Structures are given as C-alpha cells and as structure tokens.
C-alpha cells in the first residue's frame, strides 16, 4: 500500500467536483509549517488545501481548518477520508476555503486510537502548535480573510479545538495576544476532561456537538466544561447533545464495537463507533447555522 504522501503527491491544481451543484474547488497538497520544532526548525506538516471558487485577493473569503481524529485524515487506500471530503464539500459550497491538516504522517505515526493516553508521541501540545502554525499559514494567504478563520475538529481533533482555544493555557494566551486566534470553533465529540480540569475560557465562540450514548468521549464532562466556563469568559460556549448517538454519529457507517481502543469511559471494554442518521443531519445543520452566524 502506498503512503499518504505518495498517493497524494501531484494533486496540486487538480480540479474536483465538490459542493452543491458540482461547484468546482481547487485541491492542492501544501506544506504547512507547525509552530512545533525539530532541531530548531519548524516541523513541516502536510496540508490539503481546497480553495473556495469565487474567492480572490480582492474579495477574500473565510477559511476553516479541519482537524482529524486519532485515526488521521486518510482512508485505507491512502486518500483523504470520506468524512474529510464530505465536510470540505459542504464548506466549499458555503463559499469558504478549507484546509485539512495531517499531524501524524510527518511524525511517523499512522494512528493514535489504539495507543493508551499517556504513551502517545503526538499529544495536545503538538497538535496545538500545529493548529497555530496552520492559522498563521491561512492568515498569510491573500485569498483568505484572516479575520474570519474557524476550527473544526473530530474526537482527538475536537480535543485539539479545545486545547487550541483555551486562554487558560499559556501558549493560547500568548497566541491570542498576537491576534492569532480563530473567529469560531466547532468540536465534534471531543474529550473534555483535560480542559475541564484546567478551566476553560474560550478565545472564540465555541460549539460542542456530543453523542448522548458516547462511551469513548462522554458528553457529561463537556456539559460540565460548558457550565463551568460561564464564570471564566464572556464568550459562553454552546453544546448540543444528540440522544442515543455514539461516537462518530456524523458517519454513515453502522455502529460497531472497537475492542482495540484501550481508552474510553470503561478502559479495556472497548468503545462503540458509528453513525446515527438523525444526529448526523441535526449536527450538520447545527454546525452550519453556528458557522454562518460567526463567519458572516
């Protein structure tokens, strides 16, 4: 099987039929410098850039940074996953740019899901610095409105959204003081325990979308985080919890037990992952309504 780099090389300027009515968006593989360093040099990350069709330097458009979960952004064949391409299509149809960031391949990792928390080489520190590097990269592009950037993440990427927008963390506070922050942030089924413990004060309006039956990253800590953060910030976070929905409820895949995942509400018992049509549709509309309001 070819690597993600090999299978995606040469995609620059490739036109893909994306968005409503087959609207065209240009996809290019790009290099995005992380704020994480290796031997004094910025670590180069792999990015997949989907420019909104009508945006120009004279009329820049908002941009959304897509942050993958513990499984990375690719499918088993090495191409971008169905989830990533689906959301890119939706975002481009709104007239927004989209950047899919790969935090794993440049660090020699394929996935984190089967690794115990506490043993992972790629942590929220690395992913936070990747996020800031990507925001910096987006801000420098002439076709991007640097005042209208958004974060969108799933699972481990959802936790990255929290870790990258919590001004209680020194790195986030420093970035915010340099105006390096998103206009809005959306986190699908994130793990909220770490930022709940730290105390969460968002640098931007935040929407959390959680499954009521999620036994991997439970909704309860996220509900507690939202409630507790009301006393720390003027930007009150929002949360939507979809009854009966498991982890990955926005997928079209059937629910299955992943016994290979060592983390979760009951460590060692595995976790359930899979889609729920009602939650998939509702969360899509909730996400779009929120981003439309924040990026207008």
Automatic annotation (TrEMBL):
GO terms for molecular function: hydrolase activity. Residues 1-25 form the signal peptide. SUPFAM superfamilies: alpha/beta-Hydrolases. InterPro entries: AB_hydrolase_fold, Dienelactn_hydro, FrsA_esterase. It holds the Pfam family DLH. Residues 51-293 form the Dienelactone hydrolase domain. Keywords: Hydrolase, Signal. Transmembrane segments: none annotated. This is Dienelactone hydrolase family protein. It comes from Roseateles oligotrophus.
């Amino acid at each position: 099987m070819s690597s993600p780099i090999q299978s995606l090389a040469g995609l620059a300027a490739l036109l893909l039929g994306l968005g409503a009515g087959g609207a065209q968006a240009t996809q290019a593989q790009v290099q995005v410098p992380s704020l994480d360093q290796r031997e004094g040099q910025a670590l180069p990350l792999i990015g997949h850039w989907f420019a909104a069709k009508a945006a120009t330097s004279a009329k820049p458009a908002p941009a959304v940074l897509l942050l993958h979960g513990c499984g990375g952004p690719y499918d088993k064949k090495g191409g971008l996953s169905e989830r990533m391409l689906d959301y890119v299509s939706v975002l481009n149809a709104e007239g927004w740019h989209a950047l899919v960031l790969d935090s794993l391949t440049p660090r020699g990792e394929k996935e984190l899901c089967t690794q115990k928390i506490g043993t992972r080489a790629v942590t929220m520190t690395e992913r936070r610095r990747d996020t800031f590097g990507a925001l910096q990269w987006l801000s420098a592009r002439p076709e991007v409105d640097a005042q209208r950037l958004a974060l969108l993440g799933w699972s481990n990427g959802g936790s990255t959204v929290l870790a990258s927008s919590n001004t209680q963390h020194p790195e986030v506070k420093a970035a915010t003081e340099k105006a390096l922050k998103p206009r809005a942030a959306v986190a699908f089924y994130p793990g909220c325990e770490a930022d709940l413990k730290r105390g969460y004060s968002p640098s931007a309006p935040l929407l959390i979308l959680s499954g009521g039956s999620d036994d991997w990253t439970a909704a309860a800590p996220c509900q507690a985080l939202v409630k507790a953060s009301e006393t720390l910030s003027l930007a009150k976070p929002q949360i939507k919890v979809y009854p009966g929905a498991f982890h990955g409820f926005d997928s079209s895949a059937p629910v299955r037990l992943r016994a290979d995942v060592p983390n979760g509400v009951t460590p060692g018992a595995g976790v359930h992952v899979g889609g729920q049509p009602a939650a998939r549709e509702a969360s899509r509309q909730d996400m779009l309504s929120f981003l439309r309001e924040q990026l207008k």
